[in-house]
Amino acid sequence: MFSAILIEKGDTGNRARVAQLEESQLPPGDVSVRVACSTLNYKDALAITGKSPVVRSFPMVPGIDLAGTVEHSSHPDFKAGDSVLLNGWGVGEGHWGGLSQMARLNGDWLIPLPQGFTAQQAMAIGTAGYTAMLSVLALERNGVTPDKGEILVTGANGGVGSFSIALLSRLGYTVVASTGRLEETDYLKKLGASEIIDRATLSEPGRPLAKERWAGAIDSVGSHTLANVCASTRYGGTVAACGLAQGMDFPASVAPFILRGVTLAGIDSVMRPRKDRLEAWSRLARDLDLSMLKEITREIALDEVIQTASQLLAGEVRGRVVVNVNG
């Protein structure tokens, strides 16, 4: 028997609970993993609360991230005792995920736990840090170097925002953080932001083109915020779009793209090819100051997940939430 968060569909909506399950109930897969840590992400919170139709089949164990140790494997790349890591691949949506003490998975979804990271550190980074690194790589590939000017990070208090600030600052960029929680200014400056702006300046309908300011941006908010970010990005700049906290809509015009040559780079972390994942995690090992994880992360036990999911959606959670599934 093992413990897991289980989401079931009822007559009045989804219901999440901590359940005791048997290994025979695990879905098919060629690698079985004893999970050490998972995380609580925005998508997990949507699944647990039922606020969005994230879950594609029921019952479902949420958790888009996990780190742990292989117990059984028929996959050629992994053997019992290997330390492994998973981000995305629809886990926690269409296949049972990491908010559980056990997982059975397709070995093609796994990568080795990067050297130098503990399971807890890898989950402190998780999909949020991995997505932030993919976003930074997109800026670099489009020639956005530190000397080009300021980089805007929206949704700055969230997981992706926090890691984006820490990574960009460490790489020498001047970072401006946009947040709706100005009381967190000290936290954001400690991560490396040079200036904090109120998200209200970006979140309302704006003009097709605004005064040029940003050399690049990492946006996890979407909607009017993303439109305004693009409208105020400098000639030849790049905006990496990786989230939709404000909304899925994009009420913008083509003006920034055809008049200023702005690039809108879409960042998908879920189905990213293995080589991109390995590159991103290799860069995280090189470029992330691991001492910052204490500032970004809090740890909870499995039985605290459901309550914390509601707090996360209410904007009451700062940075990253690591779940010690055995705690």
From TrEMBL:
Instruction: Tell me which SMART domains the record gives.
Output: PKS_ER
Q: Name one Pfam family in it.
A: ADH_zinc_N
Under CDD domains, the record lists: MDR_yhdh
Q: Name one GO molecular function term.
A: acryloyl-CoA reductase (NADPH) activity
InterPro entries to which the protein is assigned, alphabetical:
Acrylyl-CoA_reductase_AcuI, ADH-like_C, ADH-like_N, ER, GroES-like_sf, NAD(P)-bd_dom_sf, Zn-ADH-like_protein
Task: Please report the stretch or stretches of sequence annotated as the Enoyl reductase (ER) domain.
Answer: 13-323
Q: Can you name this protein?
A: Oxidoreductase
Organism, per UniProt? Answer: Pseudomonas putida
